[in-house]
Amino acid sequence: MSGNVTSHSEFGHGDPAAGFAKADKVVERSFKTAATHQGYIEPHAAVASVTTDGKADLWCCTQGHFFVRTLCAGMMGMEASQLRVTPSEIGGGFGGKTTVFIEPVALMLSRKAGRPVKVVMTRDEVFRATGPTVSTSIDVKIGMTKDGRITAGEAYLRYSGGAFPCGTIDMGGQAAFAAYDLEHVRTYGWNVLTNRPKEAAYRAPGAPQAIYAVESVVDELCLALKLDPLDVRLKNAAKKGTKSSYGPTFPDIGLVATLEAAKKHPHYTAPLAEGQARGLSCGFWFNFGGNTCVSLNVNTDGTVGITEGNPDIGGSRASVSLMAAEELGIPYEQIRTIVADTNSLGYNDVTDGSRVTFAVGLATIKAARDAVRKMCLRAAKIWDIDEEAVEWKDGAAVPAGPNAGRFPPMTLAEIAADSFATGGPIAGHHEVNVDGAGVSFGVHLVDVEVDRDTGATKVLRYTIFQDAGKAVHPDYVEGQMQGGAVQGIGWALNEEYIYGRDGRLQNAGFLDYRIPVASDLPPIETVILEIPNPGHPYGVRGVGETPIVPPLAAISNAVSRAIGTRMCELPMSPPRILKAIGTTA
Amino acid sequence: MVKVQLWGSLRSAADGRTEVEVEAKNFRQLLDGLRAAHPGLAPQIERGVSMSLNGVIYREAWFTEIPPDAEVVLMPYMTGG
User: Fold this and answer.
1) Residue from A134, A288, A351 whose CB has the most chain B CBs within 10 Å, to mutate
2) pLDDT digits (tens, 9 = 90+) for A69-81
3) What distance in Å separates the CA atoms of residue A570 and residue A551, rounded to the nearest whole number?
4) Class for the domain spanning B2-76
5) How large is the ipTM?
6) Domains along chain A?
7) How far off is chain A from B3, nearest CA to CA, in Å?
8) Is A327 helix (H, G, I), strand (E, B) or coil?
9) Residue A95: left (phi > 0), alpha (psi -120 to 50), or beta?
10) pLDDT tens by residue, A550-581
11) Which of A242, A286, A543 to mutate to test the interface with B (most CBs of B within 10 A)?
């Protein structure tokens, strides 16, 4: 292996060669995707203050201030307890704020200057100095029978992580064929060092590119064999009991339900005008849980304060408050959830992996149950009955049955008001490393129209189907789904790092790095399915990353059908479209 | 004995096999057993691994019990964005 290959991975099972021999049609294609930036609106910013007694405070925009503390304390030679990191309200992260850039610089300058130091990146610096996603080169080979059964799949994935090693290739290799129930499947992946900016995570890191390539070849096979692309995906869909392409056997998953919902939706059979075409793609992400701490304080006026440690990048504080309200039986409006600094809670993993509503929500539910247990104990003492004879119902302690005695319900507010006299302040806590996140699938359906004179693609209609397990706050779930789709649309159509002959980045600004704006987009309809995740008390699954996975292939498949030529490189910017259809502007 | 499925690129560190057996009742014992029986796996275990137990993925969970006949799959350490 070449010296600039930093990691290699291989996943899969069966014998692809034997599977290809059973196919009626085999398609083999090569794809390329460009490096794209996460495109958060807020640039990186940090304020550091190191005092002469060796203590330090750091305020920064980050997806994970505990991780920032770990890295910066190490670089500064400080003990963790002496560095307090407070996350600011974040203006977007999407994976790109899961590491440090300017934070240790601000701290070190402050230590030297003996004054607070503020460092803010310009937009130009954000593009040049913070990580885009990997650029890729991928070969995919898939065999299919005339009736649409996939007999084998194989992919060779080469990811460029810039000038430093990265492990993103592992995720791409595992995700590539995850949507399919395959007897023979294999992926081979390499991460390669190149003279480019260091890669940083970007929503479902590694998966969109791999699944784009696989879903493009599946679409080409459907066209060649004159098969309905949704029927083919249903015929081959991974389901409970499927041995996944990356090893584990799937428990309950929602892919078939999302495909069936797409098939029934009016979008799938809506008429298309001449020059318009429809594309679709499946998407997948693993999700995970991780280290999480929650404190829930019952105030003496009957309101509740929740302290958690994960920067809110998608409405998670609202979801956390809703779950606490459900457990405690009090109105949502009486609860406030805040994100605390590193000295106020135990360690919390970074806000990534679509983990926060799932993991912080689980810890909140357990913290609320801890507080409820303590409030039932206070009521038992007031009533002079056994703790076991009290239960929590509709926001109040009540006798558990007729034998417990006859007492009127004692509300949370009443118990809280007397708390100083009954044993002191009441709080619930839960600290855990959460597992059982449950994987997530989605299906995207898109109609496009390609202007054959300019090469511009217009997205006409877009519908997302995704399994959320349980949508605690449906508006925020919808927001995650729409936001992921929009970023994927940008990736598919326009976004790329463009380098000049001198090797310098040419488009380090939003004028030349073209992300989609509202006027580029149609209303994006969402269909939220709820197949409960058994690993969460309410069935929650992470939803934040899966929706960026399908747009690349869904739009590429639609564009390819519209122009009658298979597109194999992203972005499908107007010059590439014009080249593909053989015209010039 | 627990049967542990390895991903393909670990084959060279496990005598050419993608499924190995170790004596273990929980994940910590399983990782210790893998290191002892196949020292070539140790660097990857140190870099980080996840475990799938009957389809549920765990990142760090030493004391998760492994029931008899469970499906155990060693996976790269999960990361996200």
Assistant:
1) A288
2) 999 999 999 999 9
3) 12
4) alpha beta
5) 0.96
6) 5-37+132-243+254-287+438-581 (3.30.365.10), 45-129 (3.30.365.10), 297-304+315-338+351-433 (3.30.365.10)
7) 13
8) helix
9) left
10) 999 999 999 999 999 999 999 999 999 999 99
11) A286
